[in-house]
Amino acid sequence: MAYTIDKSFALASKEGASQKASNKYLILHSTANLGASAKNNASYEKRTWTTAYVHFIAGDGIVYQVGTPGYVAWGAGPKVNGLSPVQIEMEESADVAKQRRIYNTYIELARDYAKKYGIPLTLDTTGNGVKTHNWVSQNLGGTDHSDPYGALKRIGIDKTQLAKDIANGAGSSVATKPATTTSSKPAVSKPAATPSTGIKWIAQTGVFTITDSDGIKLRSGSASVKSPLLAILKKGNTVKYNAYGYAGGYVWIRQPRSNGYGYLPTGNASGNKRTSYWGAFK
Asked: I want to staple 91 with a disulfide (CB 3.0 to 4.6 A). Which of 38, 179, 255, 256 is the partner?
């Protein structure tokens, strides 16, 4: 085993789901949080486990445990959580060489635990096996995420290669596989003035403080509830923004980030008219 498992952020006995999961699927995720370490993601999930968490977050030669393997975790939606004794997130790094090492850890961990729970080393096929979060969204529903394929694209890994690596192990194929021409420039690092939703951004700077008790999901890529999840922000969290706009029945704000933009809905809208507030502006 070329990785170590750190249990610093493992849920306590009275934290997390108490139900055992059936040994049908192993779910592959990515964090959708480019630049945040596996440790930081694990720490966040430990603090916010009542909202969502997985069993493991794979980093560069180290794996952080959050949920208890064999038991239900809340990472892939209600239709699959009870069928998945292990769910694994992959740390996302802009450093291509590091991301490949993280990927090797991710694959080895997935293979080890699939074997432990008698789950076939097949990817996104019918029946029992290893499934991506994207497969769950497309085939079972209850979730709309498309990970981990967006993150894997940055190191030249497509579905075919991922399936081969799940079946046989990553080995040296990842280290020698050339990245695609766009891998060094992931889409999230090129913020669009007008994303796919057709939103028209109105320049405005300010700070938004969340007052909604359920929190709000921060997205990447575009102002859409179907865009990749960056984080779940809690009541009291603040977001600095530089523009706002209307799309999909919500009023969105745009948060400048080191690698692009984050997009946060701040209330409901009817056309270009706000109908509710989920926080306070200043």
From this structure: 38
Write out pLDDT tens, residues 4-54.
Answer: 999 999 999 999 999 999 999 999 999 999 999 999 999 999 999 999 999
SS3 165: helix
Sign of torsion, CA 97 30 162 17?
Answer: positive
At residue 65, what is the residue type?
Q
Local structure of 21: helix, strand or coil: coil
SS3 content of the chain, % helix, strand, coil (to 5): 20, 30, 50
| pTM of full prediction above 0.85 | no
Domains along the chain?
A: 4-176 (3.40.80.10), 189-281 (2.30.30.40)
Instruction: Report the percentage of the chain scoring pLDDT > 90.
Output: 66
Over residues 165-189, the pLDDT tens digits come to 999 998 534 433 333 333 333 333 3
Give the alpha-carbon dihedral of 201, 32, 258, 197, to 10 degrees: -10
For residues 217 and 201, what is the distance between their CA atoms, to the nearest angstrom?
Answer: 19
CA angle 30, 238, 230 (to 5 degrees): 10
